[in-house]
Design a protein that fits this description.
Layout: H1 2-11, H2 18-38, H3 42-56, H4 58-70, H5 72-91, E1 98-103, H6 106-116, E2 127-133, H7 136-149, E3 151-152, E4 158-159, E5 172-177, E6 183-190, H8 191-199, H9 211-232, H10 238-250, E7 253-257, E8 263-267, H11 272-279, H12 281-285, E9 287-292, E10 295-297, E11 309-313, H13 330-362, H14 369-373, H15 384-393, H16 398-404
Parallel strand pairs: 2-6
Antiparallel strand pairs: 1-2, 3-5, 4-5, 5-6, 7-8, 9-10, 9-11
Helix pairs in contact: 1-3, 2-3, 2-10, 3-4, 4-6, 5-7, 11-13, 13-15
Length: 445
């Protein structure tokens, strides 16, 4: 519903003033597009991307739109040649695919122009052809046939069927040199993969509910639940959350393996700490080191695609703030911060209790301990523990608390004679220039 609403907002944004358009477009770019990408909702993503470009850089959008229209007939004719040759050849293998082509989105073309520093006319791979077949094995057969007809570019081949993306996307990507020496990106997938690629996690509602689909849905939205948990945690910093959101949702991925051959996907630049927390929180907490490709490495080592990783752990190990210097995933950083903050809170409460007890004992007011603790509301705190924690952190002094309690000076003391006061008379014998009314102890010597 929110995506549909945002699509409508962006489609009608031209009716708003330029000042109002900008923040809406930026929010769409920074939040909605990454989420659509992570949910595998390609249709929504590229539509939003184009509308963002149209809003934030209307000149570039109009320029690309104009050039695409001027070459539209020529492009359609070219795509027909490709689709016909593929269809004819695949029929010989009793494969009857749906083959169609279209230019890449305006925002995608603009991204290539900026990334490569080239003009529209110098971007050759703006055509994309899609081959949709019935079965997975037909995908690989179609790939072989395609490479027989057109020469493939080796470094531009990716098999997302064998190693799906974290958003559930599956497809074979290959780029070939077509007629007239033009580069064409071809995507080969099954009908079910096509649904998932276009509408992502929403594709699960297209099929009848069942145990298999329910499990698939859970796996696709598990990361979203984790992100919401991080967002709602006390330790969350909204600015850092937005930064981590972009890393988790929009960064390139690497594939790493455990010694048992289990496959895991992580953002690029992930470290063993990120991997450990990805597997399990306790494994992350107890991580003391890692073996990458059978060699012991530091915890700040960047993992690479295809690495074999094993985590070394010890129950005596606990997280520390230094891990935040190289942990990049929101899950790892959130759990580290949560653990360290909890330890610091517990230590502050311990120190606060000691300070409070010693101070009240010295003031002969230990019997008023409960009264002191009940004053937490006067400082806008949530409870007694928060009051003790504030004392332990040095954010609140005993004097400040007593000043807030009505008639605290008239409270009956535990032992009236010899009451110690925070305020002492100035010494007649020794003067401390510029300082008065401070607590001071004189050495016996």
């Amino acid at each position: 519903i929110k995506f549909a609403d945002r699509l409508h907002n962006m489609a009608t944004i031209k009716y708003l003033s330029t000042i109002k358009q900008h923040p809406i477009a930026v929010e769409t770019r920074d939040v909605y597009v990454p989420l659509a990408h992570r949910l595998g909702m390609a249709q929504v993503k590229w539509k939003l991307d184009d509308l963002i470009l149209k809003t934030l850089n209307p000149k570039a959008y109009k320029d690309i739109e104009s050039k695409l229209k001027s070459s539209n007939k020529q492009r359609e004719k070219y795509i027909k040649i490709i689709t016909k040759s593929l269809n004819d050849e695949l029929k010989n293998y009793k494969i009857y695919p749906e083959v169609y082509g279209r230019p890449k989105s305006r925002s995608s073309i603009y991204g290539k122009m900026v990334e490569r520093g080239k003009a529209f006319e110098e971007i050759y791979d703006i055509l994309a052809v899609r081959v949709v077949v019935k079965k997975v094995e037909d995908c690989y057969l179609a790939l072989g046939v395609l490479h027989q007809i057109y020469k493939p570019i080796q470094e531009r081949f990716k098999d997302f069927i064998a190693t799906p993306k974290s958003n559930g996307y599956q497809s074979i990507h290959t780029t070939v040199v077509g007629p007239q020496g033009k580069m064409i990106e071809v995507q080969i997938r099954t009908e079910e993969m096509e649904q998932t690629a276009e509408i992502g996690v929403a594709a699960h509602w297209r099929y009848k509910s069942g145990e298999k689909n329910s499990e698939g849905m859970d796996s696709h939205v598990k990361w979203l639940r984790e992100l919401l948990d991080i967002l709602q945690s006390e330790e969350n910093d909204p600015k850092e959350f937005m930064h981590l959101l972009k890393i988790d949702l929009f960064s390139d991925e690497i594939f790493v393996f455990t010694p048992k051959g289990d496959l895991f996907q992580l953002p690029v630049k992930s470290t063993p700490i990120d991997f450990a927390y990805h597997v399990h929180t306790e494994i992350g907490h107890n991580c003391i080191g890692a073996k990458v490709n059978h060699k012991i490495v530091p915890l700040n080592t960047e993992l690479k695609n295809g690495d074999n990783i094993e985590i070394l752990s010890s129950k005596s190990q606990t997280p520390n703030y230094s891990w935040l210097k190289f942990a990049i995933t929101s899950k790892a950083r959130s759990h580290i911060r949560r653990y360290v903050n909890k330890q610091e809170r517990e230590e502050s409460v311990k120190i606060g209790n000691e300070i409070l007890s010693k101070s009240l004992r010295r003031l002969k007011m230990l019997s008023q301990l409960d009264l002191i603790k009940e004053s937490f509301a006067k400082f806008g705190l949530g409870g007694k523990v928060q009051l003790i924690e504030a004392i332990g952190k040095g954010e609140l002094s005993i004097r400040e608390i007593l000043d807030k309690i009505p008639d605290s000076n008239n409270i009956k003391k535990d032992n009236p004679p010899g009451i110690l006061s925070f305020k002492r008379k100035e010494s007649k014998n020794i003067k401390l220039e510029g300082i008065s009314n401070i607590m001071a102890n004189f050495g016996k010597c």
